[in-house]
Structure formats: structure tokens, C-alpha cells
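I'd like us to work through together how a protein chain folds, taking it slowly. To get us started, please write out a protein record for me. Go ahead whenever you are ready, and we will take it from there:
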Amino acid sequence: LIERKTRAKTKRKEIMLARMKKSCSCTPKKLKSFVMNFFPVLQWLPKYHCKEYIWGDIMSGLVIGIILVPQAIAYSLLAGLKPIYSLYTSFFANIIYFLMGTSRHVSVGIFSLISLMVGQVVDRELILAGFDLNDDAPLGLGDVTLKNDSQPNTTAFNLTYAGMNAECGKECYAIGIATALTFLAGVYQVLMGIFRLGFVSVYLSESVLDGFATGASLTILTAQVKYLIGIKIPRSHGHGMLVITWMNIFRNISQANLCDVITSAICIVVLVTAKELGDRYKQKLKFPLPTELVVIVVATLVSHYGKLNEVYGSSVSGAIPTGFIPPKVPDFGLMLRVALDALPLAIVSFVFTVSLSEMFAKKYAYTIRANQEMFAVGFCNIIPSFFHSFATSAALAKTLVKTSTGCQTQVSGVISAMVVLLVLLFLAPLFYSLQKCVLACIIIVSLRGALRKFRDVPARYRVNKVDTLVWVITMSASALVSTEIGLLVGIVFSMLCVIVRTQRPRTALLGQIQDTTFYEDDLEYENLSSIPKVKIFRFEAPLYYANRNYFLKSLYRLTNLNPSLEIARRKKYEKKEKQLLKKGDQATANGLNTGETALQLVPKQIDFQTLIIDCSSISFLDTTGVNTLREILKDYKDLNISVLLACCNPSVIDSLERGGYFGKDFGSMQELLFYSIHNAVQFAKDQK
């Protein structure tokens, strides 16, 4: 046997006390280290190579800023909020991530999936508060006496609901819900960072995330169709939103606005063509074409001078105020209503941010700190929630644009924020005449990447059928039920798939590869030699309570021997033999009786004397697993069959030792445990 190293006993109590003492101590050096780690910008900004980095950061920052403005205005439709709040979100997220983020390349700001999740909660709470989701018919709860408000296109109501007792219109209540939801999501993310709960992201597999993104994209697409064709239908919410919305669309298709339909068709053709050309010639282009901005500028000019709203009734964005609204503490009464909704929002936001950060860090050969990323995205939600902003996350499309335009550091994020600030302070009113159908076109075209996942289904199926099933289930639940339920269903189903795989793993009898000391599955490979009087059984999973019965059934089936039944048969045969001997029927006792009952009791001829269990794929044993192996050892021993274990890892050996498998003094270990299958086979051959 190989000698195991003796482990020094660790005094956990002393170690924990030492760690707590170290954590609670406060020295100038430790305080400085904490501040430097909490604000990574203090580490890398003094080392910034201005001549080498500045032009790439300026170029990428300007391009992303130009892209951010139309996307921010467009994604406000998804969130059910006014465009000004999307601009606030884009501005503050870039500034805060610049200070706290560890990734040099990711673009943090508004993200379509996050905006959709916020919008679904906002819609639900608006309906519960008595508001009408129809953009053109705001109706309130309580006293509906209209009053003039300082902000344009805002209706004020005397509203007492959910702890709020103030004049608050639909817009006011909607942003109140969004900021409460965003604040709680940020708090959850910070708490996850404090308690180092980033491991929860490992339960969101690639198949779950892709299915969730694709299902949510179908929901986003569905929500934008009414703007594309200019019909007025109630905004659906809750479970089955996709089906209900499409039913309402087909019922009201005759009311489509011809002006919006023509505008949408032109915009989609222009945007898709520009995107395809950009993808095809991206190696030759120094930076992506600002197609969205061009489309928005041209569409706004055409709408304004053509008076499309007044003449054809085309729906427009309306007034977007300039400047900043005074900060306000998120309403704690509303937080109780959205506390559960904030949890999936926090997890999805964090997972997308960290996964993108790790992907680009690996690509450009640097490291990130996942825990700090959780703090960064958490404060990107907490602080902006005081400034009328909603939840944020990293976005793949904008991150790819940043890297392709020469981004080197998060200085580019500050440049993007300055572009958004310019729009906030001076240019926002210019978008008054922008048609909503143009914004819907920008959103739909941005979903190309997620919707293209449908083309990958055949290839995904060929690689792994189970992962494809997880993708389909998650996508279907996210689209047909709701995004939150879809995410939960995807996680639960993927975990069930893992459990089922360990409950019913592959099992095999092994044969020897000729002229070698290696053994493989005799059903998978040809020209394998069987070992006389020896059976070698492989179980390709941990042995624990959930697969114990499958382990025993597979072993008995492949070896064609159930020791418990065989022992019972022998005992019955011996009892029958003694009864016949007492009657003096010697001939029957010697087995000459050919009756059916006697034949059933004759002991079975066993064609092996040694059973070797290949434990190389058994990663761990629980108490049930140890007891199962002890039971096998005892049952086969009663039939004079030796049971040998081969290729056990140290964890399995420790479990067997603690479970008493080798006896009290471990004296039988050398005869029961072997470090290779071949050693066990040689030992079996040497036995009489």
C-alpha cells in the first residue's frame, strides 16, 4: 500500500478567532488597502499610459455614447418609463463602474433583459394601483381631479396607496416602483458580496442563460409589435403575456397606422442592412457605423417637418425635460411590494456582468475580482436609485463595440457618460417628434444575436441532447409564462438533469485490452479479453442514497447474480434437503427428483469467484454508499465470492475507513483495496 501522509490537526476555533481578530482590526495600512481595493480606479488610474491609451478610450467612449443615447430612449419603452430616466441610468452607471469596476472593457448601463424585468414589475404594480397601462389614457386611483404639474405631459392625482400619501401621477408612481426595485436589487448584490455568495452564479449554466435570453427576447419582440404597426392595445402583464399580446394584436390589426407601418419597414431594412454590412466588413472598418443615431436624427426631422403626429396620428416620444430632477430617497413602503421581484433581478444582473467581465479579462490577459464586481454592480443600482434611475447590467453588444473601437480602460466609460450628459443638459428636447415605432425598430434589431440562437439548436442538439432540452424548457417558460418563472424553471430543471444523471449513470463490465494492463467496457470496444472467474464492474457516478438501488440492480443484472436471492434459495434448498432426508427419500435428496419445485431450489452455478469494483468514477460516498458496499461485501462473502475495490480516491478511502469497511484495525485493507484494476486482477488470480 502507498503510505498516506499524516495530516496535522487544525485548531479551527483558533483559526476562526485569528481571522475575526484580523478582520476587525483597523490600522492605517489596512484602511488604505481597503479603500484601494474598494475603489480599483485608485490603483490603475495613476499608472494610466496617456499616450498609449487615450485615443482608443476617447474613440470607444464617443462611439458608445452615441449608441447609448438612442438605446436609452428606446429601452424606456421596455421599462414602461419616460426616456429621461433611461438617460439618467446610463449616465450614473458609467461613472460608478469607472470608480468601482475591475474590468477594463465591459460596458455597464441599460440592458434590454433587465429593462424588461423592471417593466414587468412596474406594469403589475401600476395595474394594482388602479392605473391604466395605455400610454394615451392615464387613469388614477382615488381622486382623479386633474392638476397642472411642473413637468410637461404629467397628470397628478391625490393618491393614497402602499404607504404613499401624496400627489402622485402614473409617471411618478412608475418611477417610484422602479427605484424601489433597483435599490433592493443593489442591496441584495452588496449583501451577496459581503457574504461571498457569488457561487450562486454557477447554477446558471450556459444553456439556462441562453434559453432565458432567447425567451426574454421573444417577449421583448412581442411587446414592441404594437408600436411597429401603430395600434393601441392594452399592455399585457403577468403569466402568458406573449400569447395574450399576440391575440390582441391580431384582433386589432385592422386599426394599424399606415404611417407607422411604412416608417417601421424602412427603419428595419436600413438597420438590418447596416448591421449585416458592419458584420461583414468589420475588419476593414475602424469603428462601427452609428446607424441608430443616423436613423433617429433623420426620423425625428421627417416626423417634425412632416407633422406625422398631427396629420397621421403617429405616436411620438413627447417632451423630454433637460437637467436633473432633485434626488429622492426610494420609497421603503414600495420596497415591501417588490422585495421578491428584486432577487432574480439582482442575480441576473450580477451573472451577466461577471460572466462578461471574466470573458474579456481572459481574452485580454488580465484578472478581475468577482466579489468586487458584485459590489460595483450593486452600487451601480443603489446610488442611481436616489437619482430616478433603474437597474443596470453589463451588455454584450456594447462591450463588443468598445473592444472593437480601441477601448483600453474604463476612461471610455467616463467619455460615454459625458456624451449622455450633453444630451441630458441640452439636446433632449430635440427628440420630441421622434416616433415610437422608430424606437421599437432599434430594440427589435438589437435582438438579432439572441434570436439567432434558434439557428444553433441543431448543432447544440448534436453536442449534448440534455443541454438542448434545458435550453428549450428555459426558453419556453421564459417566453410563455414569465421571465422570472422561466429563470427559476431553467435552474430547477438543469439541477434535476444533473441529479437524474447521477441517479442513472452508465454501468459496465470491463474486459482486458489484449497484451496490456488496461481494462475497458466490453460493450463499447472489440477484442477485449475476459478474465476467467473474475467480473470487473464499473459505476460512473458518486455512490449515494439516491442511486443506491440503481447501483445494486445494475450490479446484479450485469453479473447475472443476486446474492440475496441466491442465499435465500440455498437456505430453502438445504431446508428441503433436510426434510427429505428425515423421510428417508435418499434419491430425492440427491436431486434426482425433476419436479418443478425441486428444480427452482437447486443452487445456481456461479461462473466467477471474484468481483472487482472499479471505483475510479466514484467521486464520493455518503453513509448509504458505505453501507451498500459493506452489504455487498457480506452478501458475496456468504457465497464464497471475494469483493475487491480498485482505483479509490483518498476521499472514498477515508469514507470507507470511517464506515468500518476494513474492520476495526484496518487489517484487511491490503486484501480488499487496490490502486489499479490490474493489481486486483493479479491478486484474484493468485488466490486459490
In short: The CA atoms of residues 154 and 171 lie 7 Å apart. The chain has 29 helices and eleven strands.
